[in-house]
Amino acid sequence: MKALTSFILTAMLLMSLASLHSARLANLPGEKLKDTGEKTATLNAMVPGKNIAGAATTVNKASRLFLELVKTEPVPVIGPQHPDAKDIPAGFEAGTTVKVKIKGQNAYHMVSTTMETFGDTRWADMRTEHWISEDGNNWRRHKILFRPGTNPETGMWELTAGPIWFFDEKEDRWFIYFDFLAYDRRRGWDTPVQLHRAGAKTLGMDGINGEFEYPGETVAPSGIAHPTDAEVSSIGRPYQAADGNWYTFVGGGMKPFNAKSGKWWILIVKAKGPEGPFIYMPEHSPEPFMDPTGFVENPMITRIKGPVTGKEYWTIVFDYLKPEVTTGNNSQLGFSCSVDGLTWPVGNAQLIDMDKGLPAGTNAWWRAIRVPHQLIDEGNGLYTCFFSAYDKQGEFESIGKATFRVKEIVEEPR
Fold first, then answer.
1. 351 with 320: CB under 8 angstroms?
2. The dihedral of CA 318, 386, 114, 176: what is its sign?
3. What digits encode the pLDDT tens for the residues 233-290?
4. Partner of 411 for a Cys bridge, out of 62, 189, 248, 380, CB 3.0 to 4.6 A?
5. Adjacent-strand bridge partners of 126
6. What are the Cα distances from residue 373, in Å, to 161, 166, 259, 283, 335?
7. Tell me, what's the pLDDT at 162?
8. In degrees to the nearest 10, what's the CA dihedral of 365, 366, 371, 374?
9. Neighbours of 267 (CB within 10 A)
């Protein structure tokens, strides 16, 4: 009888302790558990080796990409001595390059602003050109797509700048997104600009080799994509973010967008499709991308899978202006990544010194690196990036080439 009484008292004590323990779980000071799943996770943590109700015990780890510079070519791939560059004495400015397979053959296709004259008039005589290379080293001019000049119908001086390739899979058609300007007389490029796109006259992948319907159509209209008083200067390649919507970058300067933007700034604008019209988004106007902000120009977007996690990232390379505008010299490019195409943590930004990729004992051929082209996937984690840069005299903008390896940092949870 005494043993039975002892057993009953012990059982009652255990039940009371269990009740108190449950109450403790429901009312942890400063750590209120919101739902059954959260309570289950806490119990799993308290019971070693046991997974209650099949709850997952994995934790999402923070991750990001970064670029490792493998090689910077010691000489330009297109310089002032190139036979096809004799009639563009100031060289190349903004543009981009893609690698395309047509009829079983891969080739690099570059679209770029070029300058027909030198000195004070160089910005008044900008045209758009298409260049091709089978190996990325030996280039030839394929076609002049648009020349500056007076429109016979309007009498206005027309210019184009900042061309970007984009293949619209739905339309099965290549487009070039670009700046368009029309002045009452011959004068140099200035902000603000109109943001247009021109479609290839031939459908299909090989339409990239043909003519385009200049001056095209407006895709990011003033007063819809950006305030009417914003000094916009560029448009990026459209991209689809993780939420399924379409976005692009609208750049501007030198007039600050607002009190926090700095002189050069980037907006993220939204549309239902790559054709636009792209619409202003106050919450991304501007997007800082890095600290210090106000020096990001011409971000070029590429989707890349993380080599460790296999997770997809949205990445950009960009022109980092601060060294050039403060010293007249620049050897850096910028890089950043996003997990969804809309969230761009400033901590993900990376500056890359292109000098460090040159062969030992080689001096840089440039005075100031200008505009990087988008990253081109070469396989095995390697990416090619072409870029424009002023030569040592600052007279001709050549095209350089660099190779990067994409790496992924996966941080252990604290």
1. yes
2. negative
3. 999 999 999 999 999 999 999 999 999 999 999 999 999 999 999 999 999 999 999 9
4. 62
5. 115
6. 14, 13, 30, 27, 12
7. 96
8. 20
9. 25
CB 374 within 8 Å of CB 300: yes
pLDDT of residue 109 exceeding 80, the answer is yes
Amino acid making up residue 238 = P
Nearest to 116 by CA among 175, 76, 181, 161: 161
Over residues 175-187, the mean pLDDT reads 96
CA–CA–CA angle 190, 192, 197 (5° rounding): 100
Taking the C-alpha atoms of residue 235 and residue 266, their distance in angstroms, rounded to an integer, is 9
Q: Could you read off the pLDDT of 293-306 as tens digits, one per residue?
A: 999 999 999 999 99
Span 158-176, pLDDT tens digits? 999 999 999 999 999 999 9
Full 3-state SS string of 94-119? EEEEEEEEECCEEEEEEEEEEECCCH
Nearest to 163, CA basis, from 118, 253, 97: 97
Residues 235, 349, 303, 273: is their CA dihedral positive or negative? negative
Which residue has 């950006």 as its token pair? 226
Q: Is-contact 253 265, C-beta < 8 A? A: yes
Kindly report which listed range (10-24, 51-65, 109-123, 396-410) carries the lowest average pLDDT score.
10-24
Task: Please give the DSSP secondary-structure letter assigned to residue 364.
Answer: P
Packing angle of the helix pair 36-46, 2-26 (nearest 10 deg) = 120
Domain boundaries, the chain: 2-28+35-47, 65-410
Nearest Cα residue to 226 out of 272, 188, 191, 176: 191
Cα separation, 128 vs 112, whole angstroms: 6
Residue identified by tokens 């159509």 is 217
Measured between alpha carbons, how far is 110 from 96 in angstroms, rounded to an integer? 6
Cβ atoms of 112 and 92 closer than 8 Å:
yes
Residue range 65-410 forms a domain whose CATH class is mainly beta
Is the link from the previous residue into 254 a cis peptide, with omega within 30 of 0?
yes
Whether the predicted pLDDT of 192 surpasses 50: yes
Q: What's the pTM?
A: 0.84
